[in-house]
Specification:
The complex is a heterodimer of chains A (279) and B (252). Chain A is mostly helical and 279 residues long. Chain A is built from eight helices and no strands. Chain B is an alpha/beta fold and 252 residues long. Chain B contains nine helices and ten strands. In chain B, the strands form two sheets. Chain B has a six-stranded mixed sheet with strand order 6-7-8-3-9-10, sandwiched between helices. The longest helix of chain B is centred in the C-terminal third of the chain and has 18 residues, at 174-191. Chains A and B meet through α4 of A and α2, β6 and α3 of B.
Chain lengths: 279, 252
């Protein structure tokens, strides 16, 4: 009797546990994403409100630009030289049967300027920078340094978030220009050394159908990606809870959040920039 | 006419499922040296953060010199906090700056003082807490006690009306604790500030406090002068003073 009384509720609970667990996980994930997006929107509004105080943060903005830009150069160089090389090899393979090799430079340039340069740069720099921002601000949060700033009547959004935001928005396009150039160089080296395409043919292909707005469009995307990277890092950092585990969790959320948002924004920006404005 | 000082009325605060404060009433007069006692996790630090608007209460009112803190805008809160300073439990020094830059930060942000004068005032504040030679050190180079003293220097450099201390002696050896207690006492006398010290260290409390409140289960269960606290013969305050696990205060 006692065993029967015990087993009934356990069975009933067991029957609901697995699907309910899944529903709860999905629900929590959706709510978490909406909350994070909401926090990002609120932060953006507070950043805009803090803009008039920008001159007070001038020195810190330059310092952050150096950290974001200079620190990311090796990563961008390695990523983009191989990106260009892969773009050349893949394009050559896919085009070999129906497109003349003279167009290889054209195809690689389009791919790099519009898509690969800005997106891959944003993904690798985003992983480095958003996790670094989240970990730094997260540590400040859990050691009460953010509260200490508030107590000194210093707005953490103006003092901490604004310089990082502007540094990312300014430096992502700069790094993308570098990435574009190095990727094209990588493609050029692979084309001339392994694919048997002469330098003249590659460069002629590069010039063919070259539109400056392809590059500008890519750079606009890079600036937006910079904003996403900074906001993702700052939001995760400012909302860190707990100790060391909380800081690790914040860094992970920042990287995942920035990568997902970059890919979503890439689609939306591609539609807006290349179909609505330059289409 | 509005009352000077801090008036906390029927304040409640819940985090998730946990009700930390449940109808707290407390008055802290201007110029008073108030100690808020309580076991760990009873919401003492939460009370400090509510007073300065770092947290908002779920219910109740908090008046500082007649100003309703939860109703203040962000700008209003920053204006209010210019009259306050808080010494955090772990010091909360900005670890990317030197000790001197930590202390000078508020002056650089909020005053138009010349750089020489900013440095001079920061050095003077550090000297007051016995850290005259630590201006150029990084916080990581300081011991726990020195970090707390640097936190106190950062707090007093702006000459606030109210000084809030969150567990000023926690984690320190008895000698450093005594030094911090006498520093707090000296600063209270020299600067004429209203101080609120949150602690569970009775040695510290007897040294720095003139009025005592005991927080337990979300409510103030004792509120009286130092003499009244010392004269208590039973109840939660006596148990807390004696540090006994037997009595109305539950250990776990």
């Amino acid at each position: 009797m006692l065993a029967g009384e015990r087993s009934l509720p356990l069975d009933v609970e067991g029957a609901y546990t697995a699907p309910m667990f899944l529903v709860r996980r999905i629900g929590a994930g959706v709510l978490g994403t909406v909350a994070e997006a909401g926090r990002g929107g609120l932060l953006l509004a507070r950043l805009v409100r803090a803009l008039p105080e920008l001159p007070r943060s001038f020195h810190e903005i330059l310092r952050q630009m150096f950290i974001v830009g200079n620190g990311s150069i090796p990563l961008v160089l390695i990523t983009s030289i191989f990106t260009g090389a892969v773009a050349a090899v893949q394009s050559s393979y896919q085009m070999s049967t129906y497109v003349p090799a003279t167009l290889l430079g054209t195809v690689v340039a389009k791919m790099v300027f519009i898509e690969l340069g800005p997106v891959l740069t944003a993904l690798v720099v985003g992983a480095r920078v958003s996790s670094s921002i989240a970990a730094e601000l997260g540590t400040m949060k859990v050691t009460e340094q953010i509260d200490a700033l508030e107590m000194l009547a210093i707005d953490p959004v103006r003092y901490l978030a604004l310089p990082r935001f502007l540094a990312c928005v300014a430096m992502l396009p700069v790094l993308t220009v570098l990435a574009d150039a190095v990727a094209v160089l990588g493609a050029f080296l692979v084309s001339s050394l392994t694919l048997g395409i002469s330098a003249k043919v590659f460069v002629d292909g590069l010039k063919l159908l070259f539109y400056a707005h392809d590059v500008w469009g890519g750079l606009i995307k890079a600036a937006v990606f910079g904003a996403i990277i900074a906001i993702s890092g700052v939001v995760s950092g400012f909302h860190t809870e707990g100790g060391a585990a909380g800081v690790g969790d914040a860094a992970m959320r920042a990287v995942v959040g920035s990568a997902l948002m970059i890919l979503v924004a890439d689609y939306l920006l591609a539609t807006i920039i290349f179909q609505v404005f330059f289409g | 006419m509005s009352e000077a000082g801090i008036v906390i009325s029927q304040v409640s605060k819940t985090f998730g499922q946990q009700k930390v404060l449940d109808g707290v009433d407390l008055r802290i007069a201007r110029g008073e040296q108030r100690v808020i006692l309580g076991k760990s996790g009873q919401g003492k630090s939460v009370m400090l953060k509510l007073i300065v608007g770092l947290l908002k209460p779920d219910r109740g009112s908090i008046l500082v010199d007649g100003e309703d803190v939860p109703g203040l805008s962000r700008r209003g809160l920053f204006r209010l906090r210019r009259r306050f300073a808080m010494v955090f439990q772990g010091g909360a020094l900005f670890d990317s700056m030197t000790v001197g830059e930590n202390v000078a930060l508020a002056l650089r942000e909020h005053t138009s003082l010349e750089e020489d004068e900013v440095t001079e005032r920061a050095r003077s504040a550090l000297s007051q807490v016995g850290l005259g030679g630590s201006y150029d050190k990084m916080p990581a180079e300081l011991s726990g006690g020195m970090r707390k003293r640097a936190g106190i220097a950062r707090a007093i450099v702006t000459r606030p009306d109210y000084l809030l201390y969150d567990e000023p002696t926690t984690g320190l050896d008895p000698i450093s604790s005594d030094a911090i207690n006498h520093l707090i006492l000296r600063l209270d006398r020299e600067l004429g500030v209203t101080s609120v010290v949150v602690t569970h260290d009775m040695t510290s409390a007897w040294t720095v406090g003139e009025r005592f409140a005991l927080l337990n289960d979300g409510r103030i269960v004792f509120d009286g002068s130092k003499e009244e606290a010392q004269a208590t013969t039973d109840g939660p305050m006596r148990q807390f003073i004696d540090g006994s696990s037997e009595g109305p205060l539950q250990a776990f």
